[in-house]
Structures are given as C-alpha cells and as structure tokens.
Design a protein that fits this description.
With 903 residues, the protein is of the alpha/beta class. Helix 1 (14-28) packs across helix 3 (49-58), helix 6 (111-120) crosses helix 11 (195-202) and helix 26 (571-579) packs across helix 27. Keywords: Iron, Iron-sulfur, Metal-binding.
C-alpha cells in the first residue's frame, strides 16, 4: 500500500478544498471533500495556495489568455507567469498556442479524464508523490460508482472507438466513428506512457501490460505534452504504427468524449485489466456508459472456436461454447442488467481482474479442453483445410513452439477426447499438426514470431528441455536477453536424450530449436548450474530471474536384492547413452522392467542394440498398461515380447554380474479409487534368465548442488514446491516448471508450463506488476458429449487416414512413419465435426472490434446497435437526468414482470 503523504492534517487547506470542488465537476459535486478525498490529497501534494489562487480565477473548462488571468488574479505578470508554469508542470493546467492569434491558452479540465492523466504523466512528480497515482485509481472508482448506471449509452467521459477495419465497410458509419477522421483532423501528435498503467504500477497492481509509449495525444493535447516533456512528438505514420501495435496485442481504443462531436484530445490504447475507464464495464458491469454504437455478432457456421477473440475480449463478453446441437439445452438464466434493474454493489463484478472465464457454462470443444496447452485444435485444422499452412502454424505456436516435435511424440489426449471418436474414429490431430509443422523444417520458410516489446532484462533458464525451451521462446518474443544453461552437450533434455530417434529424429528437434537461436536466445551447453556456476554468481552477472526446468533425468531404483550388479542399467541412462552415440551393444537375454512409454522406448531401442528378442515385464495387465496402445503395437512389430502381471522380487547374480530376474505374480495393481497399489502373490514366481536388465519403473529428479543456499523447498517425489498458477518458489526470483515441479509428465505439459513461467517472469522483472491480477487462468471444460445430437450423415464419412511407413531396414534408428500427403491431410481435416463456437454476451460487449482483428475465418463482425453521439461535458448533467427518468420507467416495468413470474 502506498503511504499517503500529508493527508491527516489538523486543518484542511480551504483553497485546495475549493479547487478540488471545482475540478470534481459532475462526479465530485455531491461528495464531501476531506483529507481522504482523492481530489484533495492529490492536489494538496503539489499545489501551493498561490497556485490555487491562479487556478481558481480561471474556472473550469474555459480557455483563458494570459492577459485575462493576470487581470483576474491581481498579481504581477512575472509572478503570474511563474505560477502558471508551475501549474502546467504539475498537470493542473493545460497550455497550448492558439493558431489564430498565436497566444497561449490556459485551460483547467475536469479531474478525470483530464487533469489526473496529466498529473500522473509527469514521471518525476509521480515518483515523488505516488499518492497521485492512488488518487487516480480511487477517484475513478469512488466517484464514478454511483454515476455508472445513470450514464446514457456511450455518454460517459470516455468512449470506446472501434477498430477501423471492423467498421470501414459498414453502411452509415459516421466519420467521427473512425480513428482515421481524427488523424486527418489534427496535425500534431505525441505519444506518452499510459496513465492508468502508471498508476497501477506505483500501487504495485500492474497486470503485465506495460505503460511505455502507448497512448496518443492530438492537437492541443499533443502540443501540451510535447511542451512539458510528458510525451514525445510523433508523425501521423508513427501513430498508425502505435495503433497497429496496440491492436496486434489486444489493446482496444478509447477516447475522451467531453469536447463535443468529432473533437477529442487523445486516443488511449487500453487493456481492461488496468484501465480505469474500462472498469466502468468490467467492475461496475455498466458497459453501456462507454460503449461504441456497435456490437459483435458471431456466425457459428464459420466460427472454429480457436479462442483468439475470447482471449482478447476486454470485457469477457465472448466465451467458448459448443456449435453442435444439444439434445437437452441447458436452461438459460437471465442475468440482471443496469438497463432495467436497481443497481448496487451486489451487482458488481468485484473480482473482475481474477475471475475471467474463457468457457461458457455448457462447455466447449473437448480437443482444446483436453490439451494441456489448450492449443486451438479446431482452428488449425480448419486453416489447414483451406491451405493456410503458415496461419495454422502461427496459431499452434501461440501455445506450443514445438509442433513438429509434438506431432511425433505427443500422447494426443485431444484425440482421446475427440467427439468424432464416439462415432467412428477420432481425427488424426497429431498427423495434421505434423503435416503443418513439417513445412517449417525448411529454414527458408520457417515462422519466426515478431517481437512485441524490446525489454532486454537478463533471464537465465536452467535446463534445455521442453519446459525451459518453451519459457525461453515466449520470453524472447518480448526481446528479453535469455540464456539457456544445459549441463549436457546436447539441447532438448529428454526430447534429445530420452526419446529414441525412431520416434523423434534429432534434426526435427534441432530445426525447432534453431528458431529460438534466430530469436536471439543464447545457449550454453556443458554448464551445470550449481557446480560450474551458482545462482548467486549469475545474479551478480545481472540475471534478474531464473526458470529452473532440469526435468527428471534420473532413473528410479527397485530397492531389491542384486540391483547393483553389473548388467543392471537404468532405462533412462541407457537411452541417454544411445542418443549420445555411446550406447552399449547388448548380447544375450535382455529383460526390460516397466510398462510405461519410456519402458517401451527402452525395449524398442534394445532390439536395435542387440540381436536377441527383448522381453518386457510389467505389473499391469495389458489393458491397464500406462503405455499408449500404438506404442505397444509398434513394440510388438519390433518383436518385443510383453509379459504382464509380473513384478521383480530379486535380481539373480553370479560373480557380481546379473544372470536372471525372479518375478512374482502381481494380482492387483489398482485399488477401488483406481490408484496404483500393487499386491503380489509371493508364492507364484518365475525365474527369467537375463544378461542385461533395463529398469524403467519411473524417473527421479537430480538437483545436485543447484538449490544450495536457496529458499526453494522440495516436496513429494523431490519436486520443487511452487505456486500452482505462477510457478514461483519460496525464492522469489526463482520459478520452476516441467518434471522437476510436477513429477514426470509428457512434453506437452512441460511446454504449457514453460509459457506460464514466461508470463510470470515477465511480470516479476517489470516494476510494479503483480503475478496474478489480470491473468487468464485458462480454466477449460468440455461440453457433455452424451448430450450432443450428431447426425453423421451431415458430415464427411471418409475413414480416418493412416500415415504410410517408409521401407526402412529392420533395426535402424530412422523414423519410418511418414508425414501425411496433402491429399490425406485434406481428407482428414474434412472429418472434423467443428464442435465449438464462440458466444457473445451482447450486453457486456462494448463494440471495440478487437475480436474481428483476431479471427482468421471472418466469423465475427460488428453490427450497428446504437446511434448515440458524444457531446460537450457541460451537457452531461441534463442528459444523465433525462436518462435516469427513462431508466426508472424500465426498472418499474422490470419489477412488475418479476413479480408476475413469481406469482
């Protein structure tokens, strides 16, 4: 909490009270001014009594000449000029030169929007008096709260202006409804920091959207900002670049609407998680006050539920729902609105910065829900179907920088949940993704994401596996100086050293890592942090945050007799040796212990390292094996023999070398809660001869000396304890992700964690930002597939496509799975049922048009739903009164309807 300076005075300063009353205008007229009033303590911090005398003679919103002010205040010209200079410096008074008579005009605007922005945008002043930032937040919350439901539509002091591309082709659009009108109207422009985000920053409530050089001033506003150093002058072309940057990054446009039709001093580029004007819609739930004359409308037949519009909607008016008809639709609950209900604090959305919902109550596409990274599966499938492969790849990479890798090794939980699978077979999602991703293996056409910011803070990533590389990728988009430290000589972690080449050829992995190199990420291999360099030493080198993603690269022990004998090898160690090119040749009987995907990889690799048949023993039945069915089938094709329901009792040795394994029958693996709980029949045993035993019963985390002296705590399974949303540990500048945080999972889980880690680190190293406020929790849930009415005859009934296999020689480490042909890809994409679609809450939509810029399918548009016009601030009281009368009638009518329904 920012400490108030000089608030609790024994006596209020009368002149400051009077000035506070004057500038409070409509919002402050009915409020008592005391030492706790934001108008008072902001002005009290920087305005002397002499300055207040000069300001008071000017009046509110009246351009005054210097001669007028001198005459009215009764001071000398020199003293008056000095006081005016102080007032313009603080932001209480705005100044510009009249184009006709070339004389300066001095102007006092209302407190907000107007004066407070100018006070906040004096960086030095805000640093010395952070209570001004607090006043901005408090004034625009407390003073607007009782007025918010009373504003006529689009008649608050700020008003949304739609993205021009969203309205340029609509009939009847007025010139003043387009930003281009203002860019032609004015000839002087400046850019400044966002005053709302600066205020949030000094309060320690930043949302991760940065304030630097984002808001535009025009005409007299620009002249004032340039003269007082609050902003820098920019050309009209630079303004267009700033507006494009804003739209690319989901920042909507708002303009002060107090100077009459077609007049405004600024274009704000706002994020709803920090903007005080947008809070009228999001906190008070009174969006009509600031809305444009347009509302978004979705064509569900074209929508593919990619979610890009949902994630960028400032008011959370868009949500992902289902497109397929429900057998029994969920009953619709009518939410009260401020249009026709008595509105009070109980109707507000108090937690609007934390409770954002991406999915409608009914649920959305199972594929997007099931993916740990929530990739827009339906979206990239439809883009691929239209031949838009680069756009499809760009969409995938918003959530996953390694689509070519995942197209080969992902466990494809999305396919397991695919609605089509309940009819015949699920869509071959991974194969479609592989087809798209393989396009960029050619370095000449690969997709390199554009930079968003140019921040430059030094960040250290410890561990070059999927989580660390993913974190590096997303930090590099903001142009952080990222260094990845990897103790092995090869990058990729388990992708490189734990997965055999016949499942993931290393040139595929390296091609996707090369993208990170082109983005500026630095890699230091053969460096073990904790041993070769410590965290403290890296801090001294200027690294401001750390993302630890060392994986789980050790094997787990059986803790049975004979485990330390020669010839008993950890499965992950065996795979590492092979991938490093120093794998041992196997001879004689090879036994693999374990039943997961890694165990299958170990067994299939063993068949290529020796001539004899490899036998695989695991506790689970064939049906309960954790390994994927297709991997088991591929292992059987490699002549791996599966022996289910056996657990190792002891390892037999002779002269310190393994000779066999004694197994006992496992009679139960899972309890009634389906938790792993093996039970054995120790009387039912078999002895299996073995010259090599490869143990693959799980993985362990090897920290070494990395965490020595840190506050990072370890929990179950030796995993690092961290916040489940932010991944921050007990050491505030240390974040963790991947297997060393969650325990062994799939690469896609680590990739998703890497992106979240990057979001947290960005917020951590930028001053005044929180790790949570305004953050999308990305909580997804699928619709009930049992409640969907699907007519298969209305969809393509082509059977699922299967990738061909190359005629590779038995025993090679080449991946013999081929990528779909384009014809196969087209046929497979046609099988998608298109389960999801976006829904619009027309009440909460403010008509900014941001959604239209994110849609690749032309599925969402703005339509005209209003005809309001901005007017002079001085006319607002009358319009509020008229609207209040009209609204009272609606409230009365609504109350009658509610009573009748109850009766």
């Amino acid at each position: 909490m920012v400490e108030r300076v000089g608030l609790y005075m024994a006596n209020l300063r009368p002149k400051i009270v009077k000035l506070a009353k004057m500038v409070g205008g409509v919002a402050g007229a009915m409020n008592r001014i005391d030492e706790k009033a934001p108008e008072y303590y902001a002005l009290n911090a920087v305005v002397t009594d002499d300055m207040a005398d000069v300001a008071l003679v000017m009046g509110l919103r009246q351009p005054r000449t210097f001669e007028y002010i001198v005459e009215k205040c009764g001071r000398s010209r020199e003293e008056t000029k000095k006081l005016l200079d102080q007032l313009t410096y603080t932001g209480v008074v705005k100044v510009w030169t009249d184009k006709k008579d070339k004389k300066d005009r001095y102007f006092i605007n209302i407190f907000a929007p107007g004066m407070l922005e100018m006070m906040v945008n004096n960086r030095e002043q805000l640093a010395a008096h952070p209570e001004i930032g607090k006043a901005f937040e408090e004034y625009t919350r407390k003073r607007i709260a009782p007025m918010a439901p009373l504003f006529p539509e689009g008649m608050a002091m700020m008003r949304v202006t739609p993205v021009e591309s969203a309205v340029k082709d609509l009939p009847g659009v007025q010139p003043w409804e387009k930003l281009s009108y203002y860019l032609r109207k004015y000839d002087t422009f400046s850019v400044s920091d966002c005053s709302c985000r600066q205020s949030r920053k000094v309060l320690g409530e930043g949302c991760g959207h940065l304030e630097k050089d984002i808001c535009i001033q025009m005409g007299t506003g620009a002249e004032y900002y340039i003269r007082t150093g609050r902003g820098r002058q920019v050309s009209r072309e630079e303004v267009l670049e700033i507006l494009k940057f804003a739209e690319d990054n989901g920042l909507m446009h708002e303009m002060p609407a107090t100077d009459g039709l077609g007049e405004s001093a600024a274009i704000c580029n706002c994020c709803s998680c920090s903007c005080f004007s947008m809070r009228i819609a999001t906190l008070f739930r009174t969006p009509d006050a600031i809305r444009s004359n347009f509302t978004a409308e979705v064509n569900p037949e074209e929508c593919v539920a990619c979610g890009q519009c949902v994630e960028n909607c400032p008011t959370n008016a868009l949500k992902l729902g289902q497109r397929l008809c429900a057998k029994k639709p969920l009953p619709k609950t009518e939410e009260p609105t401020a249009r026709d209900h008595v509105w009070s604090k109980k109707n507000w959305n108090m937690d609007y910065r934390e409770n954002r919902q991406d999915v409608a109550e009914e649920g959305t596409s199972p594929c997007k829900t099931a993916c740990p990274a929530h990739i827009a599966v339906q979206g990239y499938i439809k883009l691929a179907a239209r031949g838009k492969y680069k756009e499809a790849l760009e969409l995938i990479k918003k959530e996953n920088p390694f689509p070519a890798v995942c197209g080969r090794i992902c466990p494809h939980g999305c396919e397991d949940e695919c609605t089509r699978g309940d009819i015949d077979e699920p869509i071959a999602i991974d194969e479609i993704k592989r087809f798209i991703a393989d396009k960029e293996l050619d370095s000449d056409v690969r997709y390199i994401p554009p930079k968003r910011y140019h921040l430059g803070n030094k960040i250290a990533i410890i561990g070059g596996g999927p989580a660390g590389l993913s974190c590096a990728y997303y930090l590099a988009i903001d142009d952080y100086r990222v260094t990845v430290f990897e103790k092995q000589e090869k990058l990729g972690g388990m992708l490189a050293l734990g997965i055999p080449s016949f499942r993931l050829e290393k040139e595929v992995l390296n091609a996707e890592i090369d993208v990170l190199k082109e983005m500026g990420v630095e890699f230091k291999t053969g460096v073990e942090v904790g041993k070769d360099v410590t965290l403290d030493e890296l801090r001294k080198q200027g690294y401001e945050a750390f993302y630890i993603a060392v994986g789980a690269q050790g094997g787990r022990r059986l803790n049975v007799e004979g485990e330390d004998a020669s010839g008993v090898v950890s499965g992950v160690e065996f795979l590492r040796e092979v991938n490093l090119g120093c794998g041992r040749t196997l001879a004689g009987n090879v036994v693999v212990v374990g039943g997961g995907n890694v165990a299958v990889d170990v067994a299939r690799t063993a068949t290529r390292q020796g001539d004899d048949t490899v036998k695989m023993y695991c506790l689970e039945s064939r049906k309960e094996m954790p390994a994927l069915d297709e991997e088991i089938e591929e292992a059987e094709a490699d002549h791996v023999e599966f022996q289910n329901g056996w657990g190792p009792k002891r390892i037999l040795t002779e002269d310190g070398k393994v000779t066999g394994v004694e197994f006992m029958r496992c009679v139960s693996v899972f309890d009634e809660m389906h938790r792993f709980a093996p039970k054995y029949d120790e009387e039912d045993t078999i002895t299996v001869p073995a010259d090599t035993v490869l143990l693959s019963i799980g993985q362990s985390i090897e920290w070494g000396s990395l965490l020595e002296g840190s506050k990072v705590k370890l929990g179950r399974g030796n995993t690092a304890q961290a916040d489940s949303l932010t991944y921050q540990t007990g050491e505030k500048d240390v974040f963790v992700g991947g297997d060393c945080c969650t325990g062994p999972k799939f690469a896609i889980h680590a990739i998703a964690a890497g992106k979240e880690g990057a979001i947290s680190i960005h917020r951590y190293v930028q001053p005044g930002q929180t790790l949570t406020l305004g953050r999308d929790r990305r909580e997804y849930h699928a619709f009930d597939k049992n409640n969907v009415a699907v007519d298969l005859q209305s969809f393509d009934n082509t059977p699922r496509q299967r990738p061909a296999h190359a005629q590779e020689k038995k025993g090679t480490f080449r991946d013999d799975r081929m990528t779909f042909t384009e014809e196969q890809m087209k046929k497979e994409t046609e099988r998608c049922l298109g389960c999801g679609a976006v829904q619009v809450d027309s009440y909460m939509c403010v008509g900014c048009g941001m959604c239209t810029t994110k849609c690749k399918f032309d599925a969402i548009h703005l339509k005209r739903t209003g005809h309001s016009k901005p007017d002079l601030y001085e006319k607002l009281p009358v319009k509020i009164a008229a609207n209040a009368v009209k609204r009272s009638g609606k409230i009365a009518a609504s109350s009658v309807k509610t009573t009748r329904r109850k009766d």
